Every structure is written in structure tokens, then in C-alpha cells.
């Protein structure tokens, strides 16, 4: 028995060393450590997306950004630098679309920060999915980074002197994950204001509802998984099992969605507002990458709670004619022509404010969102500080 036990210890030790030295996971990484919408159930069944994302090794780099998390299901890997190309741009100009993700030591697309803000500095925590994270744009072009400059300039201070805005956006998160982020990550950072922007990933067919997955991880199973995920050998084995199951499946194994309905999404948003207010922190709701009835969910919750609200997608869409004509944006328009071609821009003018998915804002769109958010955030902070 001792010999058998010793043999197993040696085997798993060698396996761990090898898996840490060489990444032996399949190309798409561990299915448990990636956004639901980028797995086989949501985005990849579309031929156009799958082919575009596979070009230039895009998928391999994208999956390398994530790791497993017990409470949020997955998170960004800390201290990573990964570059991407716009797979929907013409191949001749694709290199000009390169954008780079840098994650800090805390595992977010924001510079290193302390748990408590510096004395005299007001802290804004921006929570959201890929539109807050800044999908398709550089770190400094995402609206949280631009918002910090707007808030500082309103008071005549230098960037970051009077305000700091932490970008805690993670692509693919649902309204339930956003509520978890607020309670477990944002509120412990002592923010003066929280921006909360989730909804576009609700309804992904993940095979298990977010609330059920969270409840399951509260117990012994969750503690065991947390321990196992410290092992690279275990994650490699898990990834290959998931890969084999996915390759063998002819259709999704389950049509259970992460968030079952818009009513449940509204409940998650209400719970987030209530949690923030119990902590005495004002919250600003932002609808991003959603339209129509879906965007109306956050609008109604904001109205019920008398909370500041911004429909960022509607804001950018309304500004398209101005973006297309404003002489101050001539350089940005020239860059878009070089990226997509004049003919394509003429046929789809929304590319002046959005990426080709017509969902995520481009750099100009992020700038407009930051401009609109600055007075909402400053006003919320002032009201909270008033006697």
C-alpha cells in the first residue's frame, strides 16, 4: 500500500511539473474557465464567427486570458499582456486593428490599486461585461479610463489626483455574476460610486443556471474544486475531458440558460441596487450592448430605485450622424476608413460608433459614454457626500 501510494504521489508530482512547464491543454482551454458565450453553445456554432475567430490564432490567445474562479465561475488572469486583431476587418488592414489587453496584479484591466483609496481621493468602481472591459479598444480608450480623466478635469486636477476609476469589467459576465462582483469585489474596495453595467450576456445556454452553480459551490464541492484548481495537471485533465465531450456532442447537452428570463435579470439588478445602498454607496446603472425590451429592464429598475441611468447604446447610436460629420473627428474617421473601407462605412454608418458586431462601442463610442457618465457619477458622489 505504501509503495502504491508513493507511486501515485510521484506520478502526480511529475504530471504537475510537466503541465506547468508545458501547456498541454487543448486549443480552447478549459470549458469551465471561459465565458459561456464563447463556447460551443452560443457563439461558435455560427460559421462566420467561428471562422473569423479562428483566423490568426485569435481563439488561442483569447482563451489564455481566463482562469477558473469559485464564485464568479471564471476571472481574468493577472499580469497578462495579450494582443488581438479585429477578425472582421479586411485582411489587408487587419494588422492596423491590433489592440492589446494588459491585466494588473489584481486580475483586472486596470493599473494596480490598493484595497482602500488614498486619503482625499474619490474612488469609482466600474463593474460590467465586455463593453466596460473595453472589448476591441486599448486599455486607455475604454470608458472607465476616459471617465477618470473627465472627472479630474472637471475639478482642475491632474489625472487620478482627485478621482480614480477602477475598471473591473470582465467579458461575458451576467447580471448574476455582476451582483456577485458588486458584493464580493467592489464594495470591499470602499468606492464612492459604483457603475453597474450588465445584461447582454444573460440567456447564454450554459447548461446550469448561475444561481444554481453559485449555490453548489458554496458547499464542500466548491471547496474541493477550489483546491483542485490550484493544480495545472487537474486543469489540463479537465480541459481534455470537456474537449472530448464537446467533440462527441451533436447538439448542446442542455438548453438551460444562465439567466432564465428578463424578469430574473431585473431581480438581479434590484438586488445589486439594494446591496449598494445597504453599504451606503450610490450606484449608476448603464445599459450597454442591449437594445429595446432588454435595455428597458435596467431602465425600469433605475426608475423604481430613482438611480442614475444611462442607455449607452442608444446614446452612441443617436450620435452617429454627428460622428460622421464633425470636423474634430476627421482623424478618427480616416482611421475607420483605413480599417473597414469607405464603401463599408457608407453601407453601415453605425461603424462610426461601434465595432462590426454593432454591439460593442469603438474608441469614439467609449469617449461619448465617458462624457455622458461624468456628470452622473459626479452628481451621485456629491449627493452622497451632502449632509
> What's the average pLDDT?
87
The rough form would be described as globular
CATH architecture: 3-Layer(aba) Sandwich
Could you tell me the radius of gyration in angstroms?
A: 22 Å
- The H-and-E topology, N to C, reads as HHHEEEEEHHEHEHHHHEHEHHHHH
How many domain modules?
A: 1
List the helices and strands and how they pair.
Elements: H1 2-21, H2 47-54, H3 58-63, E1 66-69, E2 73-76, E3 81-84, E4 99-102, E5 122-128, H4 130-133, H5 143-154, E6 163-167, H6 175-186, E7 193-197, H7 210-217, H8 220-228, H9 232-248, H10 262-278, E8 283-287, H11 292-305, E9 309-311, H12 312-318, H13 320-325, H14 330-340, H15 342-347, H16 363-385
Parallel strand pairs: 5-6, 5-7, 7-8, 8-9
Antiparallel strand pairs: 1-2, 3-4
Protein model, in words:
- The chain is of the alpha/beta class and 387 residues long.
- The chain has one domain (25-385): Rossmann fold.
- The protein has 16 helices and nine strands.
- Helix 11 links the parallel strand 8 and strand 9.
- Helix 10 (262-278) runs parallel beside helix 11.
- The relative contact order is 0.12.
- The model has no long low-confidence stretch (mean pLDDT 87).
Amino acid at each position: 500500500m505504501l509503495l502504491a501510494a508513493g507511486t501515485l504521489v510521484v506520478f502526480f508530482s511529475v504530471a504537475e511539473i510537466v503541465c506547468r512547464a508545458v501547456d498541454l491543454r487543448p486549443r480552447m482551454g478549459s470549458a469551465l474557465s471561459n465565458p459561456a458565450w464563447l463556447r460551443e453553445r452560443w457563439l461558435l456554432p455560427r460559421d462566420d464567427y467561428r471562422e473569423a475567430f479562428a483566423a490568426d490564432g485569435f481563439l488561442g490567445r483569447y482563451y489564455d486570458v481566463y482562469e477558473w474562479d469559485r464564485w464568479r465561475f471564471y476571472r481574468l488572469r493577472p499580469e497578462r499582456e495579450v494582443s488581438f486583431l479585429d477578425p472582421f476587418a479586411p485582411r489587408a488592414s487587419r494588422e492596423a486593428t491590433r489592440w492589446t489587453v494588459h491585466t494588473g496584479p489584481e486580475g483586472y484591466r486596470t493599473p494596480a490599486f490598493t484595497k482602500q483609496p488614498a486619503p482625499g481621493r474619490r474612488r469609482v468602481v466600474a463593474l460590467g461585461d465586455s463593453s466596460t472591459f473595453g472589448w476591441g479598444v486599448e486599455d486607455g480608450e475604454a470608458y472607465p479610463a476616459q471617465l477618470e480623466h473627465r472627472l479630474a478635469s472637471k475639478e482642475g486636477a491632474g489625472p487620478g489626483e482627485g478621482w480614480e476609476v477602477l475598471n473591473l469589467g470582465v467579458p461575458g459576465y451576467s447580471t448574476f455574476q455582476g451582483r456577485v462582483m458588486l458584493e464580493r469585489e467592489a464594495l470591499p474596495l470602499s468606492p464612492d460610486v459604483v457603475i453597474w453595467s450588465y445584461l447582454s450576456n444573460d440567456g447564454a445556454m450554459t447548461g446550469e443556471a448561475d444561481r444554481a452553480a453559485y449555490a453548489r459551490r458554496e458547499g464542500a464541492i466548491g471547496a474541493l474544486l477550489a483546491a483542485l484548481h490550484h493544480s495545472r495537471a487537474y486543469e489540463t485533465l479537465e480541459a481534455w475531458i470537456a474537449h472530448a465531450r464537446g467533440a462527441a456532442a451533436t447538439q448542446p447537452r442542455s438548453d438551460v440558460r444562465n439567466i432564465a428570463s428578463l424578469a430574473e435579470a431585473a431581480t438581479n439588478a434590484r438586488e445589486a441596487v439594494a446591496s449598494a445602498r445597504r453599504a451606503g454607496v450610490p450606484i449608476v446603472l448603464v445599459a450597454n450592448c442591449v437594445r429595446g425590451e432588454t435595455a428597458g429592464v435596467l431602465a425600469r429598475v433605475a426608475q423604481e430605485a430613482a438611480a442614475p441611468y444611462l442607455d449607452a447604446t442608444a446614446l452612441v447610436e443617436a450620435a452617429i450622424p454627428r460622428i460622421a460629420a464633425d470636423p474634430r473627428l476627421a482623424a478618427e474617421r480616416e482611421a475607420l476608413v483605413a480599417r473597414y473601407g469607405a464603401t463599408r462605412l457608407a453601407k453601415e454608418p453605425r461603424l462610426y460608433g461601434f465595432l462590426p458586431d454593432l454591439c460593442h462601442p469603438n474608441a469614439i463610442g467609449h469617449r461619448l459614454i465617458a462624457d455622458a457618465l461624468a456628470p452622473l457619477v459626479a452628481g451621485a458622489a456629491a449627493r452622497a457626500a451632502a449632509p
